[in-house]
Specification:
Number of strands: 11
Structural class: alpha+beta
Helix content: 40-55%
Number of helices: 14
Radius of gyration: 29 Å
Shape: elongated
């Protein structure tokens, strides 16, 4: 019998306990992999190459304040700026106030928004139809799929922030990167119906020529309006989205604390399993020593068993996390997780943590067993 086969048979000699240990470690690694992936998606990944070319300009004080629409033309002449389009949050109600019926609605410029977001794909004839219809709208593919919307359907959004209801006709469906669940409509629709909204903009989505222009253009925009009644704050699209994450509290500390707690829980589960396994096999260790097994061989045997068991659990947990994140990020409610995935480095980190926990939990009891006196071991009852 080879050493590998010997380890495998000993690992699953108590099938029920081994299965429960694998499931416990797998669930813990699922949580850990989720936390690592969320942390990476929020704070490490820079987003797509296309999003790296976009900036968002808003009122410096708060998103609740508007900026004059003429800022758009002043921004457009700044060197490095390629396209500028307003993105005005409508905040209406579709059907009812249930969370599952919530999605974003943006008033924008139909002529320019798909140039700012040129990774969004829409059929040319649908885009033209929307541009010609003041009361038209285009919906993201995920929303159209969720509600069964088709081109030509009527859509009514009850006004909440603005005292007007949107009565729109779906003119197109666009495929956005990730799970961008939104409808886009012509900003003039609201401006013509609400007097105080005319000439106002909530945010501007800006596309620059190259990544080297991002910081320079952002500084130039804010400097242009520094002494105006409505000063601005311009930041990358990624930083803008992170502001919404920050509204939930110190998410970074929360994720890290959960990750540490999960790792500690895995260690306890694995350590308990290995301690029980070694205690039950004291007499077996004595027999192995009698047969000529060295201390180092016995130590390696127990440590490899623990690492093997932990790696199986880690693989199951990381694989389950991959499926869970893929499903959540592509769901109609997965805007915050759009584009997130379990990357190869994250998968390897999770397996590395599992292996390290397996080693740490087994080393002390295995070391003691390897130093056991043969006579004492043979006399052991338990």
């Amino acid at each position: 019998m080879t050493f590998t086969r010997f380890v495998f048979k000993n690992t699953f000699r108590n099938k029920r306990r081994s299965l429960l240990t694998v499931l416990s470690i797998g669930f813990s690694l699922l949580l850990l992999t989720l936390m690592i992936s969320v942390y990476r998606g929020f704070y490490i990944d820079k987003g797509s190459a296309d999003s790296a070319l976009r900036l968002i300009t808003r009122h410096r004080v708060s998103l609740n304040f508007f900026m004059p629409s003429y800022y758009r033309e002043k921004v457009r002449v700044i060197p490095g700026v390629v396209q500028v389009s307003p993105m005005n949050w409508f905040g209406g109600i579709y059907k009812d106030n249930k969370p599952e019926n919530f999605f974003a609605q943006f008033g924008t410029d139909p002529q320019e928004i798909f140039k700012v977001h040129n990774e969004w794909k829409i059929a040319p004839d649908q885009l033209t139809a929307w541009q010609r219809d003041r009361a038209g709208t285009v919906a993201s593919f995920t929303l159209a799929q969720k509600y069964g919307w088709k081109i030509g359907d009527r859509l009514v959004i009850k006004g909440n922030i603005f005292p007007v209801d949107l009565e729109l006709t779906i003119r197109g469906v666009f495929d956005a990167a990730g799970a961008f669940n939104s409808i886009l409509f012509d900003k003039d629709y609201v401006e013509e119906a609400v007097g105080w909204a005319k000439g106002q903009a909530g945010t501007f989505a800006i596309r620059v020529a190259s990544p080297d222009d991002v910081s320079r253009v952002a500084a130039a925009i804010d400097e242009t309006f520094r002494n105006s009644p409505a000063p601005t704050r311009t930041e990358s699209e990624k930083d803008f989205l992170l502001e919404f994450v920050a509204m939930m509290g110190n998410v970074k500390a929360f994720i890290l604390s959960i990750a540490l707690a999960v790792t500690f829980a895995i260690l306890l589960v694995s350590a308990n399993t290995m301690a029980m396994s070694v205690r039950e096999r004291i007499r077996e260790v004595a027999v192995l020593k009698t047969l000529g097994f060295t201390k180092s061989t016995i130590l390696t045997l127990f440590v490899v068993e623990a690492m093997f068991l932990a790696l199986i659990g880690g693989f199951v947990g990381a694989l389950a996390a991959s499926g869970l994140i893929a499903g959540a990020s592509s769901s109609p409610m997965g805007d915050m997780m759009a584009g997130m995935r379990v990357t190869a480095p994250t998968f390897l980190v999770s397996l590395g943590v599992a292996a390290l926990v397996g080693f740490a939990s087994a080393f002390v009891p295995a070391f003691r067993a390897s130093r056991l006196n043969i006579v004492e071991g043979l006399r052991h009852i338990g």
